[in-house]
Amino acid sequence: MHFLLSAFKLILIDLLLAGDNALVIALAVRSLPKRERRIGIVGGASAAVVLRIGLTAIAAHLLSIHYLQIAGGLAVLWIAVKVLVDASASPESAPTAKGFWQAIRYIVVADLTMSIDNILAIAGASKDNFWLIVFGLAVSIPFVVFSSDLLSRLMDRFPALIYVGAGILGQVGGEMILSDPFVVRTWHPTALFRYGVEGMLVVAVIAVGRAICRKK
Question: Global pTM?
Answer without folding.
Answer: 0.80
